Amino acid sequence: xxxxxxxxxxxxxxxxxxxxxxxxxxxxxxxxxxxxxxxxxxxxxxxxxxxxxxxxxxxxxxxxxxxxxxxxxxxxxxxxxxxxxxxxxxxxxxxxxxxxxxxxxxxxxxxxxxxxxxxxxxxxxxxxxxxxxxxxxxxxxxxxxxxxxxxxxxxxxxxxxxxxxxxxxxxxxxxxxxxxxxxxxxxxxxxxxxxxxxxxxxxxxxxxxxxxxxxxxxxxxxxxxxxxxxxxxxxxxxxxxxxxxxxxxxxxxxxxxxxxxxxxxxxxxxxxxxxxxxxxxxxxxxxxxxxxxxxxxxxxxxxxxxxxxxxxxxxxxxxxxxxxxxxxxxxxxxxxxxxxxxxxxxxxxxxxxxxxxxxxxxxxxxxxxxxxxxxxxxxxxxxxxxxxxxxxxxxxxxxxxxxxxxxxxxxxxxxxxxxxxxxxxxxxxxxxxxxxxxxxxxxxxxxxxxxxxxxxxxxxxxxxxxxxxxxxxxxxxxxxxxxxxxxxxxxxxxxxxxxxxxxxxxxxxxxxxxxxxx
Length: 518
Known about the structure:
By secondary structure, this protein is an alpha+beta fold. It is elongated, with a radius of gyration of 36 Å. The protein is built from 10 helices and 28 strands.
């Protein structure tokens, strides 16, 4: 007698997004480490030099963290009100930050005392940054002005009041120390040139601008505000290249990764989205609350996100040494000895080997099929966990019953509860192309078996009505699809160039003199 073969469950392709190299790269981060700050984290910035410490601005403090430290390495508390916009100089030795008081303070990254204090703004200063020469500081304030300060003397060098609303974003050029970009709540983004004495380019974002960002080549500019992320071409006079609308709420921050300059944006909708070079979303990070600030380390090993609830979330990249090296399966020592020679003994050529029968472990539905309990096997396949998490197992049991010719017997004689479970399963997975062939057959059998007793149960009647409507819509879609395929075949046939059919060449007609000569 042949041994029983269990039901073979087919492996179907997983439905979902296509896995790319970008997806694998951005999934290679550890679980986030959360650090509680005193208030909402409004700004995060990494030092451009190793070990790439990062400065966090929250409440009345500016704190410097190491890439792997959970406690601040340095804390600056010389603020009487909320601090804003803490940022490093290019060499990582100096820090500058604004405040709600309208003052700008300059700190030594290795000390605690403020080296300089710039006064002149009449309202809160939300944006501060160093120009690329390292000797001048840029600031943007709620008094509608952006100013440039001299680090050595602490005096104001330039002041521009071209914006008509709060200035909440700024980015200094790293290639030219006289250029910088500002973004304002007046919906505009302006490019300033200190040598000219004002703005040289204006772009209309259309919403209050929350952040601006320059690509390393500085040919492209990114502005965020509202639900939109817009990319501008500065070499074409500020022409808009792309307008992205992938977030559901205001986009508050943006940054670039070192690898291929991937764009990352954070929003109040609690998501950080990663874009590829074609500005398609390739990965998404989810967080607990709304996001206010975002930064990526220059070596892409750390992603830091600041949220409105005062939580700083830090993700570290997985290292290759973190993965366990698989040197091959470790041979388990024998737990017992078989006869005298041991379990791992290799028989010789003249030995007579008696093989030990291996017990076959069967699933519950396989055991019921082995004992020909087809109805119970189908009930087991329709259990709650299996039909929701492993629908392919349920479909495989149905296919086995159909192969045996007992599918109709398994479907017959069901009560209202079991029939309701079966109909719900059919309605949910009927249109799935992986299961549609067998489920259409099952639906046809169910309708034939129970169409006379449907009026006895309003629940079954309603589900059966839904199943009939689903089948009708599916038939209409199939018919429309066939019509479209026919139209496409006609179009392709008309576009195919026709080759001229050349027949056999007729022999030339010979003249009378030629005939006589022949």
